[in-house]
Write a structure and sequence with these properties.
Blueprint lengths: L5 H30 L3 E11 L5 E12 L3 E6 L5 E6 L2 E6 L4 E6 L8 H6 L5 H4 E8 L2 E8 L8 E7 L2 E8 L5 E11 L17 E4 L1
Parallel strand pairs: 6-12
Antiparallel strand pairs: 1-2, 1-11, 2-3, 3-4, 4-5, 5-6, 7-8, 8-9, 9-10, 10-11
Length: 208
């Protein structure tokens, strides 16, 4: 974590211990909140801005998540896409191009934002430096990946009354993606078939 000899060393040691304790407290709090949702469905709206704040894209859709590692993320037309994972494979389907990309699921939470919400919460401490602040019914967590090869440099998760409310990702060039979750439902039964994908007849397949 980015943190007269004896006095300076003593002060530095005290600060390091405090920062470590704060990080552990934030990780414990976030793990508890995420663990409350073994399944989750929601609508979402997504807005992407470049480093200067200019809007690049606005989309909406629906999602379904189930621990560990199962997710379905469907973006509405006219920019329709479908991202599905059964915990081992990930399918990205673009119906306009009639193209399916298939790859093995990278289990690192830093490589798939959907996996952060549906993956193994015990790995959060391994993957991120975490801080949080609380104001009334809202708790905001800031996560900084410990690894270098990640999709984002900074991620914020916001919970309202214990339920995920929104997420913001910032990448290395300052591009921001804001995702607002709507009509969130937790721990309801979800058809397992949602987390598998059959390649449509005639679609081009790319294996990665």
């Amino acid at each position: 974590m980015r943190l007269l000899r004896m006095l300076l060393l003593a002060a530095t040691a005290c600060f390091a211990l405090s920062a470590h304790a704060d990080d552990d407290a934030a990780a414990t709090r976030l793990t508890t909140l995420l663990s409350q949702a073994q399944t989750m469905t929601a609508r979402f709206s997504q807005l992407t801005l470049d480093g200067s704040g200019t809007q690049l894209q606005e989309t909406a859709g629906e999602l379904a998540l189930k621990r560990p590692g199962l997710f379905r993320w469907h973006t509405d037309a006219p920019q329709e896409q479908l991202l599905v994972s059964n915990g081992q494979k990930v399918w990205l389907y673009d119906p306009d191009l009639m193209q399916v990309t298939i790859q093995s699921l990278d289990q690192r939470l830093t490589h798939t934002p959907a996996l952060l919400l549906s993956g193994d919460v015990s790995k959060i401490r391994e993957n991120f430096e975490i801080s949080f602040k609380e104001a009334g019914e809202v708790v905001d967590f800031t996560l900084k990946p410990k690894a270098k090869d990640t999709l984002f440099d900074n991620l914020r998760l916001s919970f309202r009354r214990g339920v995920i409310n929104d997420m913001q990702l910032i990448d290395s060039v300052g591009q921001r993606t804001n995702i607002l979750f709507l009509s969130v439902k937790m721990n309801e039964s979800i058809d397992a078939g949602q987390f598998d994908f059959k390649v449509p007849e005639g679609a081009d397949v790319i294996q990665e």
